Every structure is written in C-alpha cells, then in structure tokens.
C-alpha cells in the first residue's frame, strides 16, 4: 500500500507563491501518473495538475500559466508550485498517484491565501 503525505501548506499572501510537496513511501519511478487535486470549502474536488512518468504535464485552466508540477524520482517526491496566488487558491490540496491500477491519495494539506 503506497502512502502519500503532503506538506508545505499554510498561509500564503495574495500575489505570493506556495510550494507543496508530496512524499511517497515507495519509489515513484514506476508511477505512470501522479497529480494534485484541491477542494475548497463547499465545492467539489477539482484536478489541479498532473504529471506522467515521462514528464508530460497538464494543468487546470484556473492555474495554467502560473503553476508548475514536477517530480523527483530520486527523492520519491512530487511538487506543485503556484505563483501569483489568488484567494481562489484557498483549499485543501491532495496528491494522488496511480500504480498497478490502484489510485492512492494523501490526507491533504490546507492552503489559505490571504491579503
């Protein structure tokens, strides 16, 4: 069973940057797909960004052009950086990964963007 743990959440200022990490309990080199989701209070969970094991990336329109998803297979860690943070980025952020047909989730980390 793969364990995923997010970190890096907390307070961010409008216009500032936030960087989240997702550490896996096992090697991520064979995880063909990893991604970040977020869920704001009272809203459905939405996909933010994804990355494949060959480096292909995809972003939601809401964060496109100001976000970067990356992975470091040597550290078994995936990252998400969001620049020019907006109030709308306030949410619980979850990382997710697929291995062997199973999808795994982290417990989430809260990000709050304030002025």
Which features does this protein show?
115 residues, globular, single chain, seven-stranded mixed sheet, mainly beta, four-stranded antiparallel sheet
What does this entry look like structurally?
This protein has no helices and 11 strands. It has strands spanning 4-7, 10-13, 18-24, 33-39, 46-52, 57-59, 67-72, 77-82, 91-99, 102-105, 109-114. Strands 2, 4, 5, 6, 9, 10 and 11 form a 7-stranded mixed β-sheet that branches. It is globular.
Q: Mean of residue pLDDT? A: 96
- Derived structural class: mainly beta
How many β-strand stretches? Answer: 11
Uncertain stretches: none
List SSEs in N-to-C order.
EEEEEEEEEEE
Provide the gyration radius in Å. 13 Å
Strand content: over 45%
Query: Residue share in helices?
Result: under 10%
CA-based shape: globular
In DSSP terms (H or I, runs of 4 or more residues), the helix count works out at 0
Largest sheet: 7 strands, mixed
Distance between the termini: 40 Å
Which secondary structure elements does this structure contain, and how are they paired or packed?
Blueprint lengths: L3 E4 L2 E4 L4 E7 L8 E7 L6 E7 L4 E3 L7 E6 L4 E6 L8 E9 L2 E4 L3 E6 L1
Parallel strand pairs: 2-11
Antiparallel strand pairs: 1-3, 3-8, 4-5, 4-9, 5-6, 7-8, 9-10, 9-11
């Amino acid at each position: 069973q793969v364990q995923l743990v997010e970190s890096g959440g907390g307070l961010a200022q409008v216009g500032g940057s936030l960087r989240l990490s997702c550490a896996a309990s096992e090697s991520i080199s064979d995880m063909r797909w990893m991604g970040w989701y977020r869920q704001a209070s009272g809203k459905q969970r939405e996909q933010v960004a994804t990355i494949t094991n060959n480096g292909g990336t995809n972003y939601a329109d809401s964060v496109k052009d100001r976000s970067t998803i990356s992975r470091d297979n040597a550290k078994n860690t995936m990252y998400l950086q969001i620049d020019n943070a907006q109030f709308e980025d306030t949410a619980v952020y979850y990382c997710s990964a697929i291995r062997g047909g199973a999808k795994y989730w982290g417990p989430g980390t809260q990000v709050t963007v304030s002025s």
